Structure formats: C-alpha cells, structure tokens
Amino acid sequence: MFYQPENGHGLPHNPFNAIVAPRPIGWISTRGTDGDNLAPYSFFNAVAYTPPQVMFASTNTKPDRQTTKDSVAQIAESGVFCVNIASAAMKDQMNASSAPLPAGQSEFEAAGIEAAPCRTIDCARVASAPASLECRMTRIVRLAGEANWLVLGVVTGVHLRDDCVRDGRFDLRGDGWLTRMGYKDYAAIHELFEMERPQ
C-alpha cells in the first residue's frame, strides 16, 4: 500500500500516528492568568543533552482559544512549562486530564491530581509523577496546518521520584513507562534490554 497524505489513505482510521510509535507522553502543566492547566501530549520528546531540551507539539484548537489550546496559550503568556512523566500506573489520571475543560478550569482539580510547586519556574507540577522537567520556553513555532504549534524549551530543573531511582538509574519498570501507540491504543513498557554501540 502507498498513499499520499493530501489524497487520503482510504483506511477507516488515519495510520500516521500509529506508524510513529511508541511515543512518550509529555504531561504538560502550565500557569497563566486563568490559573493552572494540565494536559497530555504524545507528540513529545527530548531533543538535546547539553543543555537538556525538550519539545512538544499541539495539534488542535479549543472554542475558547481560537487557534490553539490552553497549554500553548499559557506558555506564550508565561514563558515556562513543566513536563511531567506519567507512569502506566497513572494512566487513568493522565487520560482524565485530557478532557476539553473551559479555560480557567484546572485539570488538577477536575481529575483529582495533587499539585506541587516547581522550584525554578512559577508553575505547578504533578506531585506524584515519576519525573518532572521544569522548562523555560525558548521558542514557539507555527507549523504547517491550521492549528499545529511546536513548543521548544530548555530544562531548568529535574524532579525524580525517589522510588524510581534504582542502582543510580531512573527506572520505571515497576510502574511501567506509559507510551502512546496511535488510535486509542497505549502501551506499558516493563521490560528493557541493553545493546553496546560498535566502537
């Protein structure tokens, strides 16, 4: 099978985000004049080591935000955001925070998620997340398409939950790494293997 996206794929569901999988989920918390917001994004990844940098993309709109969603609008306002890493054990809380609530209504409160303060930025984070990355936005880029935005940030602080550090490594095998597979599918990763790069 071959298709060109502009001509359609002819399948019952768009295969694109299932092809590029598994994808980590950036559970993005922001703070703006409307209050605190929390939302998951599966177009998310780390992009550099030194200094550590991350990106996520927002690909939809809300009726009360016109060309974007609450996360991007609040980052444009504040210049900061926090990336919370949800474990598979937190899948229901993560999913609950994806509800399209009106701007100003906190997903922390609506989904019963405990918030904690960040240390290097004025933003809330998910208190029980295995890891949280405090970030200063470096750039917001308008992508091709009606509502596609890329947010880039440099990491200014890292929180690691104590029980997720084992033998000097960040390790989520107990709870499982939560990943997006496409469609409505997710996966929990509990097993790892190592490979040495050729010298």
From TrEMBL:
Domain Flavin reductase like: 18-172
GO MF assignments: FMN binding; oxidoreductase activity, acting on the CH-NH group of donors, NAD or NADP as acceptor
InterPro entries membership: Flavin_Rdtase-like_dom, Split_barrel_FMN-bd
Superkingdom, natural source: Bacteria
Stored Pfam families: Flavin_Reduct
Protein name: NADH-FMN oxidoreductase RutF, flavin reductase (DIM6/NTAB) family
Lineage: Bacteria, Pseudomonadati, Pseudomonadota, Alphaproteobacteria, Rhodobacterales
